Amino acid sequence: MKRIIVTGLIALSGVAHAQQVQKVSDPVDWVNPLMGTDSQGDLSNGNTYPAIGRPWGMNLWTPQTGNNGDGWQYTYSAHKIKGFKQTHQPSPWMNDYGQFSLMPVTGKLVYKQEERASWFSHKAETVKPYYYSVYLADHDVTTEITPTERAAIFRFTFPKTDSAFIVLDAFDKESYVKIIPSENKIVGYSTRYSRGPIKNFKNYFVIVFDKPFSTVNTWNENGLERGKTEMHSKHAGAVVGFSITARGEKVHARVASSFISEEQALLNLKELKQDDFATVEKQGRDIWNTTLGRLQVEGGTIDQVRTFYSSLYRTLFFPHKLYEKDATGNIVHYSPYTGKVHAGYMFAGTGFWDTFRALYPFLNLVYPSINKEMQEGLLNDYKEGGFLPEWSSPGYADIMVGNNSASVVADAYIKGLRGYDINKLYEALLHGANNEGPVSAVGRKGVAYYNKLGYVPYNVGINENAARTLEYAYDDFTIYQLAKALNRPKEEIDLYAQRCQNYRNLFDPETRLMRGKNEDGKFQAPFNPLKWGDAFTEGNSWHYTWSVFHDINGLMGLMGGKDKFVGMLDSVFVMPPTFDDSYYGGVIHEIREMQIANMGQYAHGNQPIQHMLYLYNYAGQPWKTQYWVREAMKRLYKATPDGYCGDEDNGQTSAWYVFSAMGFYPVCPATDQYVLGAPLFKKITLKQENGKSFVIAAPANNAENRYVQGAKLNGVGYTKNWISHWDIQKGGSMEVNMSARPQTTKGTQEKDFPYSFSTDKK
Q1: Which of 401, 474, 528, 668 has CA 20 to 30 A from 697's CA?
Q2: 182-191: long-range contacts (C-beta < 8 A, 24 or more apart)?
Q3: Among the listed residues 183, 99, 166, 146, the one whose alpha carbon sits nearest the alpha carbon of residue 272
Q4: At 396, is the secondary structure helix, strand, or coil?
Q5: What is the DSSP letter of 690?
């Protein structure tokens, strides 16, 4: 049972305030894994699925309401479940890899997904990060799942029947199953994956039941093979039967998998030890409470606490572990690049275009040890594949733009991560920055133009060229930062200092916006700043113009100074949500999500503009950041099935919320600064891996008091519009005085503004 302490309804100035949560004892009980699951292809409310697993676990499990191969594998509005699926899916757009499913049926022996599907209700569904249960009405069976990182226990509760079955579906593209009746076991593999190229890919699985089989059958795309125990086909599966002598009798299945071998899958099964279902469930609950408990919130509404921990939960899955432990306990991994097994760490399932912005900085702040493993994994990506990935799923996926692995590597080192070969990773950054990769999304597409002209031209057949230019320029800044930290040669440092200013080449003084530019140096024409795509990626010029994370002061100067800069920021919210979708030939879901949010041209449902709310701090008007950040948290997030305003995207959109609720945000990863906003709770305690705690206390916080009147850092008055990573690392407190009225004198001096490259160079 969830234990919470709340204060009553308090009337203040005639306003009724919602119940306040004073203390959270078990944060996992506040998580709603169904947040964001009420989505579809043309409108995303998160595009999530209930991910049942352990933090960063190699395997996740989810009920499957969609057909095999459907990226929308679970949607809240669905009425039937077709299986319980092992999944590694980062998003419906990327789809899945290495999947297989189990499904109980009773009565008639059926195995096809349409025939085995059963009606279910959310009223008979329990969803926790570490546990899932649902009643399957058509089969009168309750299915329960509790996982470890690479294994899981299923518990099926059957009615009395001599016709109880478990259907194993190993999916298509080539799969294999073998039933071993003497051991109550099924082994096999799935080869299905959605993004490539990858080599020699198999997900080997082993399933051990605690009851003997009464019947055994295999099947493939051509039909059922009764009594046959082995099947290798395009689409293979198995059906095993049980004799259930009393209603309520349970069948347990212990399941594990491996990307390495069947023998390794059996080793991974040992994660379960000899523990029973309840023990594994409790272990999962304890791990989630410990992991989520690194952030302790107090003094928020019930809805705010639910949204906070539901968002925090989403930051703790991707990238997931692709590595395993061999018989001697050594860390090993299957390589999607070589198709072989190698020593060391590897992770998969994330796109840096999304996650460099907030997810990786969040890991560096709250969970640095897991990101140290991820950095070691990136080293192995480079050694085995020749480049760093930009979207791994699990190898090089040819999607999105940018070379943002540079930010992911540099931010980790700048924030203090050590104990891995940073010089080799720096070599990887230089290689990626100066070469095109094996696919257009790896390395830098158009790099020859970029290095020669200072931009990727609009008219040379390279799509989303302005977006590439802006992201390459920022990525060059992160290389510059890392080069300085590593004491690289001066000419090398100076080169990337120069290249990070390439954003200036696309600034159009006539419109005060970023604009594609042709190879001859002339701007593209005609130019519609409301046109999505074309020169930009899933956005328009009003969204991408702010993508100068490292030099906002330089951008401000191009726009004509602070007043004009603030006017441009204000215009984002004043403009109507009109758009030009001609590049796509129709309204993509990101456009629709901006249109219906009623925040003008602000498109928080996609990543490029998410940092923009914090930019008022650079122009001496931090109260506008405070207003809009709190407005975005209030309007655009809720722990409900429609609780996001666009794609959640591997923890990025959730990390924005968690950072913002703490009261700050990493506008420019690869610096040590977080730009201040407005904390959401009366108190948040960050329990750091170094054993020290940092407390953000805002005792006067409530729905009306969204403005910061003043602040103290460790008891001393604090006027800056940013806080250092190192101040947080030392432990201590920031006390924030909140009010319903904006404070228009605090944070207005240039000495209080956050970092900008051009200011720093001066």
Answers
A1: 668
A2: 183/208, 184/208, 184/209, 184/210, 184/211, 184/212, 184/213, 185/209, 186/238, 186/240, 187/262, 187/265, 188/100, 188/236, 188/238, 189/262, 190/98, 190/99, 190/100
A3: 146
A4: strand
A5: T
Burial of residue 83 (CB within 10 Å: 0-12, 13-18, 19+) is buried
SS3 of residue 539 by DSSP: coil
Q: How far apart, in Å, are the Cα atoms of 592 and each of 277, 539, 581, 603, 612?
A: 44, 12, 10, 10, 20
What is the DSSP secondary-structure string of 619-634?
GT-HHHHHHHHHHHHH
- What are the φ and ψ backbone dihedral angles of 250, each rounded to 5 degrees? -110, 140
Give the per-residue SS3 of 254-304.
Answer: EEEEECCCHHHHHHHHHHHCCCCHHHHHHHHHHHHHHHHCCEEEECEEHHH
Residues facing residue 220 across a β-bridge? 223
Mean pLDDT of 671-677: 98
Q: If you average pLDDT over residues 45-60, what whole number do you get?
A: 98
- For 750, residues 6+ apart whose C-beta sits below 8 A from its C-beta are 620, 759
Name the token pair of 236.
């293979």
- Counts for the chain of helices (H) and strands (E), in that order: 20, 41
For the chain, what is the mean pLDDT? 96
Note the pLDDT of residue 16. Answer: 41
Predicted confidence (pLDDT) per residue in 366-421, tens digit = 999 999 999 999 999 999 999 999 999 999 999 999 999 999 999 999 999 999 99
Name the nearest CA neighbour of 308 among 294, 324, 321, 318.
294
The band of 762, judged by pLDDT with boundaries at 50, 70 and 90, is low
pLDDT tens, position by position, 440-483? 999 999 999 999 999 999 999 999 999 999 999 999 999 999 99
Q: Which residues pair with 161 in a beta bridge?
A: 244
The pair of structure tokens assigned to 322 is 């692709």
pLDDT tens readout for residues 185-217? 999 999 999 988 899 999 999 999 999 999 999
Q: Which residues contact 582 (CB under 8 A, 6 or more apart)?
A: 531
CB 356 within 8 A of CB 312: no
User: What letter does residue 52 receive in the DSSP assignment?
Assistant: B
| Amino acid (1-letter code) at residue 466 | A
Q: Helices 405-414 and 368-385: crossing angle, nearest 10°?
A: 140
Angstrom distance (rounded) from CA 294 to CA 55: 13
